[in-house]
UniProtKB/TrEMBL annotation:
Stretches assigned to coiled coil: none
Keyword entries, A-Z: Membrane, Transmembrane, Transmembrane helix
The name this protein goes by in its record: Magnesium transporter
InterPro entries in the cross-refs: EmrE-like (IPR037185), Mg_trans_NIPA (IPR008521)
Stored PANTHER family: MAGNESIUM TRANSPORTER NIPA1, PTHR12570
TM spans (from-to): 31-51, 63-82, 88-116, 123-143, 163-183, 190-208, 228-249, 261-282, 294-313
């Protein structure tokens, strides 16, 4: 699961080239190693929501806080390990290969939830989960590719009117959701908490990428540049606040909704938001072709259909068995 993807950049400020050299020195090829780490991280991330949900249920039965529950803490630890693995994978293999593997976490989480939490998806839920994963994979493959950016370019792009307008709209929407919508409808509509956590992705991943760019000037040899240090502290503060708010609302969602459905919808919306925000900040849209644009549009429609199926599956009971009354009539 691509849960809190931005955190993968904040655990270390080692450059991609340094990571690759380390892999080569150990006799392992970078890309295969990165793919293997990404696959393992996806399975670990897929278990985080399930374990945290189990811890919440256990603590509710005991009448204590889930913050001291061992199962919940193990889920949180899995989240941290999974994101560290994601960071390493992104530095060893292309993002277009690593990111789609996050869909494995959604599928693994669904299987684990049916075993540990006894949360069984009906046929609509299963179809919605698969459609969401397929659509997100297509979106990631055709998403704008990363463009090399310097710290000076980053400072300029952070003040770009288009990006500033987008961030202001996101902040306004987040305030509306957190202050007014969530207290009234958060426990009855899963999309409220999903929207809050996904919109925060506009800060986590771009902020993490920005930290990676600025870290060289701040943590390198010699006295740090004052502008670079100020930017580093601002990005670090934004990243920390956004991650804490995400973490809070993820657990609020797990208290009220199925981990299966939340994980699938969250993966789709978070990935879409992150791609859009990163593309705006780093001007990656200029690299898009007509084919990529059409593919992204089709993938977004596909994911919307998958999310709708997941929402319908919450309120629909489907059975393949013929009713006994009809049998007797026949």
């Amino acid at each position: 699961m691509a849960l809190l993807l931005g955190k993968k950049y904040s655990y270390s400020f080692m450059s991609a080239s340094q990571s690759t050299v380390m892999a080569d020195d150990s006799g392992l090829s970078g890309a295969p190693l990165g793919i293997a780490i990404a696959a393992i991280s996806s399975f670990i991330n897929g278990s985080t929501f399930v374990l945290q949900k189990k811890g919440i249920l256990r603590s509710r039965n005991k009448g204590c806080s889930y913050l001291i529950d061992g199962v919940w803490c193990s889920g949180t630890l899995c989240m941290i390990i999974g994101q560290v693995g994601n960071f390493l994978a992104y530095n060893l293999a292309p993002a277009v290969i690593v990111t789609p593997l996050g869909a494995l976490g959604v599928l693994f989480g669904a299987m684990l939830a049916s075993w540990i939490l006894e949360e069984h998806l009906n046929i609509l839920g299963k179809l919605g989960c698969i459609i969401c994963c397929c659509g997100s994979v297509v979106l990631i493959i055709h998403a704008p590719k990363a463009v090399e950016t310097s710290r000076e370019e980053l400072e300029e792009r952070l003040l770009d009117p288009v990006f500033v307008t987008y961030i202001l709209l996101v902040v306004l929407l987040l305030i509306t959701l957190i202050v007014w919508v969530a207290p009234a409808h958060g426990t009855s509509n899963i999309m409220v908490y999903v929207a809050i956590c996904s919109l925060l992705g506009s800060f986590t991943v771009p902020g993490s990428k920005g930290l990676g760019l600025v870290a060289h000037d701040v943590l390198g040899e010699g006295p740090p540049n004052s502008r670079a240090l100020a930017l580093f502290l601002v990005l670090l503060g934004v990243l920390a606040v956004s991650i804490l708010i995400q973490f809070f609302f993820i657990n609020k969602a797990l208290e009220c909704f199925s981990s299966n459905i939340f994980e699938a919808i969250y993966y789709v919306t978070f990935t879409s938001t992150v791609i859009f925000a990163s593309a705006l900040l780093f001007k990656e849209w200029t690299e898009l072709t007509v084919t990529d644009s059409l593919a992204m549009l089709c993938s977004l429609v596909t994911m919307c259909v998958g999310v709708i199926l997941l929402r319908i599956s919450q309120e629909t009971v489907i059975t393949w068995k013929e009713k006994e009354g009809q049998k007797k009539t026949d």
